[in-house]
Amino acid sequence: MSGGAGAAGQTGTGASRAAGETPAGGRTAPGRAVGQESLDKKSVDKASAGQASVAPDPAARAGNDPEATDAAGGLDRSLFRYIWRHSKRDQILICSVVLASLPLYFASLDLPRRIVNEAIQGHAFEKGNETAKFLVLRLQMPDWFGHDLSLFNGFDVDRFELLFGLSSMFLLLVLINGAFKYWINVAKGALGERMLRRLRFQLFSLILRFSPNAVRQTKPSEVATIIRDEVEPIGGFIGDAFILPAFLGTQAATAMAFILLQNVWLGLLAAGVVGVQFVVIPRLRRELLRLGRQRQLASRRLAGRVGEVVDGIEAVHANGAEAWERAEIGHRLSGLFDLRLRIYRRKFMVKFLNNLLAQMTPFLFYCIGGYFALKGQLSIGQLVAVIAAYRDLPPPLKELIDWDQQRLDVQVKYEQVLQQFLPERLIGADGTGLDEPLCGRLAAEGLGVQEPHGPVLAGVSLTLPLPALVGIVSDGGPAASTFARVLARRVVPSSGRITIEGRDLSDWSGAALTRRIAFAGVDPVLFPGSLRDNIVYGLNRRPPPMAEAGPDGRDLAKDLAEARRTGNPVEPFPADWIDYEQAGVADAAALDALILDWLARIGMGEEVYRFGLLGQVDPDRHPELAARLIEARVAFRERLAAEGRAHLVEPFDPARYNRQATVAENLLFGVPTTPFLTGRALAEHPVVRLVLDRAGLTDDLVTMGERIAATMLEIFRGLPSGHPLFEQFSFLAADELPEYEAILARRTATEASAARHGGSAFNRIRRRWIGLGRYGSADATRLIALPLAYIEPRHRLGLIDDAFRDRVVEARGELRTALEEVGGVDFYDPDRVCAAAPLRDNLLFGRINQSVADAVETVTATGTALVQEMRLAPAITRVGLDHQVGPEGRFLSSGQRAVVSLVRALIRRPDLLVLDGALSPMGENRARTVLGLLLERFGRENSLVVVLSNDRLADRFDHVLRAAGTQIHAPDAPAPGAGGDVSGTGSNASGGQGPAGAGAAAPAAAVSGRAGTETGPGPARVDQDVKA
Amino acid sequence: MTLETEVQSLRQVPMFREVDPARLKLLAFTSERVHFASGQRFFDRGDAADAAYLILEGEAAVTLEGPQGPIRLALLGANALVGEMGILADQPRSATVTAEVPTTALRIDRRVFLELLSQFPQIAIAVMRELAHRLEMTNQQLAQMRTG
């Protein structure tokens, strides 16, 4: 087994394993070869040449595990061929184990007969023998075969010993058969799961290759459903595909053969019933399958529809279409219900028939077998054994029938899944090709792009000397944007081609082009994760070296072996995939600095700094920053004192009640990290309640809760529920008012009752019995929940006195001791950073006194000055890179999303950066600044192509292309001579029509489009100018 | 000082005299109590009107910036309401208000105040009555000036 790079290109299981076992050689060798080649050919772009040497060549990567090439090659049309191709070794192994287990299974069927006949009825001792032979090992042959082959003559045993011996042997066989079954089941399960893993991975790989057209037609939630749910039964079936029929079939055949051997008539009888079962039941089930298929499609569409509604929930709300959507989904659900009901009716009818047939046979056995036994043609032992054997017959048969149904079902499912992944919906797999800088003369030759509603680009021919700054002025139509996308390889032209220095761009390898071309569009795609994750997304291209041990102590070698067996990637994950070299930096810190530099230049530095203030600092990850924060915390306090503003902040002091903080915060004196200690849940936490009881705070809090509830009921009554004032100010939600009203009413009634009847034990019980228990623990918990959020200076209900404060501080210590074991709170500590609290709170380490006018502004100003003085801003901004952007980046503004998307492109240092509306969400002023910045940076080594909506900034570009209808004109090539000037001005005039035409209707665009084709020679002339 | 004392202060304001105590309590509860040091500004002329202030303790001066330094228009004491016209008219502050001595005031947020007006006609009517009353006063003064 020494495949290495040599076997890399081959396909097939054997080669795969061979190559798979030497992953390092398989990957790096070809990669280095490519790098060498590119180093030889060019020396312009040193960084990218170095890049090429580590760039994973796709072929080499596939060679790493040639089975992975299947993922590139699509799936087999037939499920069974697919299964056989990828798992024949395992299938054969398991089948042979199944076969090996059969003789023992047969023996376990035969033993009952011997126990009854030989031991119990004593046939073995018939001829007056005192003893019989036990454990005679011979190859048992049927009577008609002749003599047996003797292996061991056995022990002499008496009747009881024989009985116990045989019974023990029976038990032993049961155990052995069980062990076989166990092994087979586990192996089957693992096999199925492996195939499922492979299938899911292949499907996912195929999704990555969906053509733009296919992407447009696909609903994300439907595809997700396919990969998650629909292939699941296929995977379950794969484990059984060959083994189950082999196992159960032979098992049933063995049992049948056994019965036949005992009595031919009984055997034929059983075979007859089985035959009926086999023929009739599947026929009845065909209809079930059809219904099942319909159900699958309907529920897939339901998932797609729900996904659509969730994605477009804003539009649903904005248009008030909730009722319509509800009705629509209701209709679908009713369809699903109807289908399911029909399936059930049919299914249980089939089940009934099946059971009936299965029960018929024992009846016949007892009846006919008994008759034979009475006539002496069948021994009692044989009858018992036959019936026992028959009891083993129906389950395998039933499972076989199930298997057959499953087979049909799964085949259909597999085909339906395949429909989504047809080759025509995919773009070609990434092959090898050139990897050279995109410099020199770029020429578009007869480019055309056809959309369903007509041509967008037609016969566009022009040349541009790269690197250059290129502006494409749009005429309001889609042509400019489409041309930019063609350049960025986001759109595949339907005709024509793009060449660089005469070489077709499609000669470049896909990986090289995606590295050398960056594109930022109007709709940035962000993934959930931090700002940093999103910005470095385009650098996640370098598979890290193999790790020695798994990240969480898992057995890495085993993981890798599994991955190879299932055609999954073997690169470590999670790991550092970032290609620092491409960004031109040495390590993560330098990369962060580079990102922050870009963000600051683009004007998002301030925002990221603010994210940082709200971010969390993990002292283990950033020990240096943590230490400086503690330093700054002390300095902050001193500075405020020096400015005479110490009263503006009440610091957290373990020995003092913080008046500006809530009761809950004063109790916990830390930040909860579990939901069980957050907010009102604190009132239900058993440990907290125990501490409150011990500190004598429970009654106080209940009373405070009553006062708060009473006040809220008084002042918020009459406000409609859902009123903003509720959410902003009330301790109670609007829908909680009645509940608390009831609690207070119970309390009043209890007090009245207590006053009238006294507090005897009997009366207490009576009150509880009639539901008037004032301190019913549920009521108490609800009431305690209220004062947890109470801050005396803010809410001013006059509920807190010094005695209460002292007791809270006392309870604080006890609570800390109790909770430190359990965990769930990150406690405040003057000398430590509280990792769960925002950075800002760690700096302040206290609460601002809200009742002093302008306190927040003043303290913020002091803090900002301090941060500046201590040069903390860069570190804080770096924390801001950990800010979570939310699903699809929804926690960011659209301007911020655009910045993230742009920096993501910039950080890759592409040869060619194409911007199509990427700046517009930033707002006009910032967009202009950013464009100026980009124009400064690009043009010397790298090219910049920007789609412009008007002429305003066009003069800042080297080359301005103008879109007109379906044409792109290159009017003003740089003017090396007078000819250039002439052609420039001439075309400028015709280009000037563009924007005017854009305002007008479609016919105008068509006219200018025709005008464009008429001026066909134009580009050629420009071309000559460039050459000259 | 608790909510109750603030409600008492609110009742001293002519505009709120007729309003139900529970509503005044809501108004007080949804407002903030803030302390101003001596010389600290409530707001400057030209600022956006985001709140009205009810002085609970202390004194505040209403001034206009004149060519020879600030001109004091009025001195407000306890239970005086200031800045309410600005939030009703949604216009920038017409004068500067400064605390003369350490002063405590109830800051009534504009948004909350308007929310209460729209929710409780009783408060709205009280405000209208007060405004009509002031208009009447102004008219009389104007008439006196014309005749005088």
From TrEMBL, chain B:
| Record domain Cyclic nucleotide-binding: where | 15-134
Its protein name is: Cyclic nucleotide-binding protein
Give the Pfam families listed for this entry. Answer: cNMP_binding
Q: What is the lineage of its organism?
A: Bacteria, Pseudomonadati, Pseudomonadota, Alphaproteobacteria, Hyphomicrobiales
| Naturally occurring in which organism (per UniProt) | Methylobacterium variabile
Domain of life of the organism encoding this protein: Bacteria
Q: Which GO terms describe its cellular component?
A: cytosol
Under the heading PANTHER family, the entry gives: CRP FAMILY TRANSCRIPTIONAL REGULATORY PROTEIN, HTH-TYPE TRANSCRIPTIONAL REGULATOR ARCR
Q: Name one GO molecular function term.
A: DNA-binding transcription factor activity
